[in-house]
Amino acid sequence: MSSTPITERSPALHFRREDDPDWHWLESRDDPQVKAFLRAANRESDRFFAPLQALEQALYDGHLARRELAVTGLPTDLERYRYWSETAAEADYPLWWRQPVQGDGALELLLDLEARSQAHDYLELGDMAISSDEQWIAWTEDASGNEYFDLYLKSLPDGEPRRLRRRIGPELVWAEDNRTLLFTRYDATQRPASVWSLRPADDVCRKLYEEQDVEFWIGLGKTRSRQWLVLETASKDTSECHVIPALDPTAPARCVRPREAGVEYGVDHRADDFYILHNRDAPHFRLDVAPIAQPDQWTPLLGHRDEVTLEDIDTFDWGLVLTERDHQEAQVHLRVIELGEGRAMDGVSATMPEPGYRLPLPEAPCSLALGDTPDFSARRLRLREESFTLPVRWIEHDLDSGERRLLKTQPIHGDLQPDALVCRRLWAQGHDGEHIPVSVVARAEDLKSGPLPTLLYGYGAYGEVLDPWFSVARLELLSHGVAFAVAHVRGGGDRGEPWYLAGKLEHKENSFRDFLAARHALVAEGISEGARIAAYGASAGGLLVGASLNLEPEAFCAAVLDVPFVDVLRTMENPDLPLTTAEYTEWGNPDEPAARRRIRDYSPLDNLTAQPYPSVFLQGSWHDSRVPYWEPAKLYARMTELASARGPVLLRTDMASGHGGASGRFKAWRDNARQDAFVLWTLGCAGQTEQS
User: Fold this and answer.
1) Does residue 214 sit in helix, strand or coil?
2) What is the pLDDT of residues 577-607, one digit of tens each?
3) 659 an active-site residue?
4) 85 among known catalytic residues
5) Catalytic residue of the set 659, 663, 671, 676
6) How far is Cα 641 from Cα 639, in angstroms, rounded to an integer?
7) Distance separating alpha carbons of residues 670 and 75, to the nearest angstrom
8) How much is the pLDDT for 6?
9) CA–CA separation, 458 vs 514, rounded Å?
10) Which comes out higher in pLDDT, residue 689 or 543?
11) Can you give 610-644 as a three-state secondary structure string?
12) Of 40, 307, 563, 590, which one has the fewest beta carbons inside 10 Å?
């Protein structure tokens, strides 16, 4: 990596205000100087990337050459029609089609998102719902990136779309009367706070439920049996479910069981019972059943197990599919439990620790999930499998014969095929002796040859799991001899519920220490070259990386922080911002002195000092309602003022997108190519296009 020429005065110096050394004025969205500052920073970024344009274009072209650009989704059968999506080779967005299941009926176009996108710089589909009689399609879309959605309705097959409501939440559920839609509305802080029912035929709209506690969000669902609508209100550690007969959406909602602090539960339905997955007196969750008439009377069905966390349940008329996570292996599994009439397990006692059986894994570690299987009596399950070296594929698993049939796989083109890759799982030793999983993927020939330049990725919050995933874009980095590693740090759910709890609130520092331990283990194992390791984190992962840089600024040669949550203390002190109040159970309420001290001690912006930071590429979005644009902007300004970084500190703000970045796939891939060009330059792998 070579030095970066600065041909103009940095925006951070030009826009400095002596009376506001913390740059809080950037939070004034309506101040024209804010956009002027962001655009000046974008121009500075453009100047930096100008000599890397050839590399950036090569990465982008290589990505396109490896990918199947014309994509047809896997068809799913409902009762009368088969549904699927198609994305043309040159299109950013898909089209949704259907055709009668029986016979050779004509194809019908349900929704053309590509055509709808032409009127907008940004477009994101929130949810799409087909009525049970398959006569109506409803969907929500966000045309700005701020996560406010408009509701549309269309009669099938060829009715004109009608906009029914503006600025609502993304989720939609049809009642089984085929006349009633359920949706959510936000409160003033963009918290999904209420559920409404709407009869489009006569525009009758009524509120079904409103959540008053500002730490709780409302979500919508329907049991797989399609007999019950479920309204779930939940904070980060407590939940409460209400059910409504799906055939009678005018009936009052019934509370399954009143909320108890620290108790999370979810509901599904089968036969005469509700199936309750919960953590009451069971920190790793257990499965109970309750009669429909007395949903608060829970009876144990599958007990608590120390070595496994139960993550999800899917009911069928024949039994259950449980998603469970092995703590020691940090591996997800699907467990099939056959049930007889009522609750009886076929020849298996409900008190046995492991009834039923696990479905086979294609390899380990890997991702395994139940795919779309809407038929409640289906005995051929659709499974979705992938890993760091296995492209996404869909398998049909026959429960009766055990036969597995490949339905679809993601094709990969070009010179670097998945069979040339290898994945390794390391176990780094943390600062307190805990063992942290670290996954590494690289070309097999490179991994044999010695320490590699490495990109280390992490997230570590909300119990989110970083199960292995295949990436076509990643192949560009691997083809340049770079290793890609994932630190499965505490705060995520990779080793189950205990792993999450050990990295939140008063234990949050474990996440940062684990990330650094993963970095050091990669070097100690001879996989990574210590002077050439870059870090990547997005959103809460940006907090992870930002805090790690403050702890050990010389551990990395570069860092990419994408929409990073770095102004943690100030954000958590402002309950009027979206997300803040709902986040108290994740980070703590700064009104409590102990919580405030903890947050202050790791918040990246509050701990910046004149240290030898690495090169940093910061990315923000103007319409981001989760992590406001000013968080990466303030970090950029203050790091630039410190002038202690060993390389460039850059900021790019997308003025037309939100938290998830660009909505069109080609723009998203271009953004990815720019990030990778920065990473390769900082790792010294940019070849002839390196700046000089």
Assistant:
1) coil
2) 888 988 999 999 999 999 999 999 999 999 9
3) yes
4) no
5) 659
6) 5
7) 29
8) 41
9) 10
10) 543
11) CCCCCEEEEEEECCCCCCCCHHHHHHHHHHHHHCC
12) 307
Summarize pLDDT for 360-401 with one digit per residue, the tens.
999 999 999 999 999 999 999 999 999 999 999 999 999 999
Q: What is the mean pLDDT of residues 110-133?
A: 96
H/E stretch holding 43: helix 32-49
151 Cβ neighbours under 8 A, 6+ residues apart: 138, 139, 140, 163, 164, 165, 166, 168, 172, 181, 183, 198
Instruction: Give residue 690's pLDDT band: very low, low, confident or very high (50, 70, 90).
Output: very low
CB 271 within 8 Å of CB 339: no
Write the DSSP assignment of 225-268 as a string of letters: TSSEEEEEEE-SS-EEEEEEETT-TTSPPEESS---TT--EEEE
Q: Phi and psi (nearest 5°) for 572?
A: -70, -15
The model's pTM is: 0.95
Q: Where are the beta strands (DSSP E) in 516-648?
A: 528-538, 558-562, 615-621
| Cα–Cα distance for residue pair 260/232, rounded to 1 Å | 14
**Looking at 467, 494, 624, 654, which residue is catalytic?**
624
CA nearest to 165, candidates 182, 144, 146: 182
Find out whether 207 and 213 touch, Cβ atoms under 8 Å.
no
- Of 539, 603, 625, 663, catalytic: 539
How do residues 253-269 score in pLDDT, each as one tens digit?
A: 999 999 999 999 999 99
Give 215-225 pLDDT, tens digit per residue.
999 999 999 99
**112 a catalytic residue:** no
Tokens of 266: 């979810």
Is the CB of residue 486 less than 8 Å from the CB of residue 452?
no
**Identity (one letter) of the amino acid at 383?**
L
